[in-house]
Design brief:
The chain is an all-alpha fold. The protein has one domain. 70% of the residues lie in helices and 0% in strands. The protein contains 14 helices and no strands. Helix 2 (47-64) packs parallel to helix 9.
Length: 367
């Protein structure tokens, strides 16, 4: 597994360097006035391409190791690996097209990820077989469509959830990396070494990109990178619960509650203001922390000042996300505890959001 990690990290690292050097002109089309822009200058948004290169190297090695007699303890059936690669390529292509042109509307991007979810159900037979709530499970298991619908919605929605939290250097990358590592750990605990290896591939690809993304901000993941994280994590989470009854379905729910709740809360917030959920704004949780908690850095150079404030924002959200990852890993098979921490996160998020909006942030949180 260490070999896979190094292979994917190295491939992603080199691909990122190449993109930084060759894609300097493309971000000039990205408008300066957009609300989600928190940097000075033009930075390539093609980190997803580099991470996909790393994933492709790792998955290809897993698929070919047995037929070609290559060393390796982890196998990925060629047809399964091919399907995963094709789904990842589909969502990556749509995200990269948006990164390059800004002409791929939110509606069409949602339809694209929805098509990926339907394809995963048809080919990989993904579904959520239970939710470990006695009152609901009796009905849930009697019919197939609720589990299938939830799986499709998860695969369709999680890429956009990661795109929503991808606002500052290292923020979404660290969240994705920690979640993949947590899923891989539980997969190893229940004896699914191959699924763990698929996730380790994603960890390595993300780490290779992260070296250039944080703290220097030389390249961003873009929509393509966020969609890649979301699809791989969604499919792996569903398969882990589907194939191992010991794993509570609330384990991945708690792991992913930060991006999921950020998305649901943003949809409600925009609907309450009469806005379309697809309209970008600057009122997400990480953006409020940037503006109202992280203090300005006094420096003569504007780009340097903004970069330092950008980098100071991400650790707040890393800590917030780790508050869900720790109990999820500790209690991965204990549904009542996982449900409790999921509800606790939602309440804490709403309290923190309202406090920041009303300028009632404790002084010790301000920097």
């Amino acid at each position: 597994m260490l070999f896979l990690l190094i292979l994917c990290l190295g491939t992603s690292f080199v691909a990122t360097v190449w993109l930084i050097r060759t894609a300097r002109e493309h971000p000039e089309t990205y408008a300066e006035h957009l609300p989600q822009r928190f940097h000075v200058g033009h930075v390539p948004r093609l980190g997803g391409v580099a991470m996909f290169a790393g994933c492709s190297a790792g998955w290809l090695w897993m698929m070919l190791s047995e037929p070609l007699g290559l060393p390796g303890l982890f196998r990925l059936e060629p047809w399964r690996g091919g399907v995963l690669w094709a789904l990842a390529a589909l969502v990556l292509a749509g995200g990269v097209y948006e990164d390059l042109t800004q002409r791929f509307s939110p509606r069409w991007r949602l339809l694209m990820t929805l098509a990926a979810g339907i394809a995963a159900w048809v080919v990989l037979d993904v579904c959520v077989p239970r939710i470990d709530l006695p009152v609901v499970d009796a009905w849930w298991g009697a019919v197939a469509w609720p589990g299938v619908l939830l799986a499709i919605l998860a695969i369709a929605g999680l890429p956009h959830a990661f795109n929503l939290i991808d606002g500052y250097n290292g923020l979404a990358a660290i969240v994705a990396l920690v979640i993949c590592a947590a899923l891989a750990y539980v997969a190893l605990v229940v004896g699914d070494r191959n699924l763990a290896a698929v996730l380790v591939v994603m960890v390595g690809a993300t780490a290779g990109f992260l070296f250039w993304n944080y703290p220097r901000g030389l390249i961003f993941a873009g929509d393509g990178g966020a969609y890649l994280w979301g699809l791989v994590i969604a499919v792996a989470s569903i398969q882990l619960v589907q194939q191992h009854t010991r794993v509570s379905p609330w384990f991945p729910m708690l792991l992913l509650i930060y991006p999921v709740w950020e998305t649901l809360f943003s949809i409600w917030r925009k609907a309450a203001r009469g806005q379309s959920p697809g309209v970008a704004d600057a009122l997400h949780f990480h953006q409020l922390i940037y503006r109202r908690i992280v203090r300005g850095v006094f420096h003569d150079d504007e780009a340097r000042r903004m970069l330092m404030r950008n980098n100071r924002t991400s650790p707040y959200l890393w800590g917030f996300a780790l508050l869900t990852v720790a109990p999820a890993v500790l209690f991965w098979n204990n549904t009542p505890v996982l449900v409790f921490f999921t509800v606790l996160f939602v309440v804490s998020y709403v309290y923190a959001y309202v406090s920041i909006v009303r300028f009632k942030v404790p002084r010790w949180l301000r920097r």
